[in-house]
Design a protein that fits this description.
The complex is a heterodimer of chains A (278) and B (106).
Chain A lengths: L1 H22 L33 H8 L6 H12 L10 H5 L2 H4 L9 E3 L4 E3 L1 H11 L11 H12 L15 H11 L10 H5 L6 E2 L2 E2 L10 E3 L4 E3 L1 H11 L10 H13 L10 E2 L1
Parallel strand pairs in A: 5-7
Antiparallel strand pairs in A: 1-2, 3-4, 5-6
Chain B lengths: L3 E4 L3 E2 L4 E8 L21 E8 L2 E7 L9 E7 L4 E9 L4 E10 L1
Parallel strand pairs in B: 2-8
Antiparallel strand pairs in B: 1-3, 3-6, 4-5, 4-7, 7-8
Classes of the chains: A mainly alpha (278), B mainly beta (106).
Chain lengths: 278, 106
């Protein structure tokens, strides 16, 4: 009898603990754990900051001025590529999608998204390549090539100023969970998890640089260190090799899972593409 | 041909000082760096930039290895006559590019 009561009590405690755990907001993301598009509640101010807020006034001015932001070179290249016929069919992006300013408005803010054909999520670059292979009959662009980055920048440019809006697609849940697990997993010879720097020590310094909160608000970005435009994937590779871990393979499931979690974590923040970062 | 972006007003009053911003896509490879294979990457620089207005050079600059990739050059000039401003970038490996922009002076 006594044993049974104790067991029941323990069971109740576990259930309660389970509930409490589920209701508690994740430490970094704030109130974004369930609803992807509505991220900030009115009562608590949003503690999330874009990398933009950690930059010098000079760099912010560079990003804000379309006459000085070098990423605009890629955006304009992407605009030209959007209207250029490609492949045997001679179909340009615009032939199917029309004006990017209307058809692509807000699209990049929802990526990565689930692709039914391959049965897995794709980031924006992979989606552009899929379109290129399936509909234009052209070989895919190399990942991280200027041609692909230009189209990515042009498409993402159409979402500038809009809130990041990860799709509420149940097929993505498991992927986001996998991404969050990766985000909190210690990796590499230095044995660091993403969360240790970007949650616990964000705003502090690592060497000469300020540690940002790791919100992917402006990709593809023009990074001064790269002297060019690069994708979120390239940025993540930089962090992974920084902690002496083997970087996830380009376009791999781990990579896109982490991108999905980061997008979820930044839901509601403004798209800045094309951003400039140190 | 590399892409270049020129930002300047399309019209100005005679005597106004106008600001002109030019951006050009260029790697500005210094010739001092080594690639992943250990070989020195050959130098590839823009060496000279010039802006002509009313058949006269109103601004020019020499560029050196310390200049970053995709150089931004900002300068100003006084609007005198309606006409084209011609921008030229010249550099290693026969790099030469010319862009023009029209300025209407009222």
């Amino acid at each position: 009898m006594r044993v049974a009561t104790v067991a029941a009590l323990v069971g109740a405690c576990i259930v309660l603990a389970g509930c409490a755990n589920r209701d508690a907001p994740s430490p970094a993301a704030g109130p974004t754990s369930t609803a992807p598009s509505t991220s900030t509640s009115a009562s608590t101010p949003d503690a999330r900051r874009s990398g933009y807020d950690f930059m010098t006034p000079e760099l912010r001015a560079m990003q804000d001025d379309d006459g000085a932001n070098p990423a605009l070179l890629w955006v304009r290249d992407g605009e030209a590529a959007w209207n250029r016929p490609a492949g045997a069919s001679g179909a340009s992006c615009s032939r199917c999608h029309g004006e990017a300013s209307t058809s692509m408005r807000g699209v990049a803010a929802q990526y990565p998204a689930f692709d039914a054909v391959t049965g897995r999520p794709l980031d924006l670059g992979a989606r552009i390549n899929a379109c290129r292979e399936r509909h234009q009959g052209e070989p895919a662009f190399a990942r991280e090539s200027d041609a692909l980055l230009a189209l990515e920048a042009w498409v993402a440019f159409q979402s500038r100023g809009l809130p990041i809006a990860p799709p509420a697609d149940p097929r993505l849940e498991a992927w986001r969970a996998r991404g969050e697990r990766l985000y909190r997993t210690r990796m590499g010879q230095l044995d660091f998890a993403c969360a240790q720097c970007h949650d616990a020590h964000a705003g502090q310094r690592l060497g000469g640089s300020t540690i940002p909160q790791a919100h992917p608000t402006g990709y593809p970005i023009y990074r001064l260190e790269w002297q060019g435009v690069g994708s979120l994937e390239r940025r993540l590779r930089g962090c992974l090799s920084g902690v002496r871990a083997e970087p996830f393979a380009p376009g791999s499931e781990d990579m896109v899972a982490l991108e999905l979690y980061l997008a979820q974590r930044a839901a509601g923040m403004r798209v800045e593409t094309p951003a400039v970062r140190p | 041909m590399a892409r270049a972006l020129i930002t300047m007003p399309a019209t100005a009053k005679r005597g106004d000082v106008i600001e002109i911003r030019t951006l050009i896509a260029h790697p500005m490879e210094t010739g001092y760096r080594r690639g992943d294979d250990g070989h020195v990457l050959p130098r590839n620089l823009i060496r000279r930039f010039a802006c002509r207005y009313d058949n006269e050079i109103v601004f020019s600059a020499d560029l050196y290895p310390a200049v970053a990739a995709n150089p931004l050059i900002v300068f100003s000039t006084r609007a005198t006559v309606t006409g084209a401003l011609t921008f030229t970038w010249e550099g290693d490996n026969g790099f030469a590019q010319t862009e023009t922009a029209l300025l209407t002076v009222t």
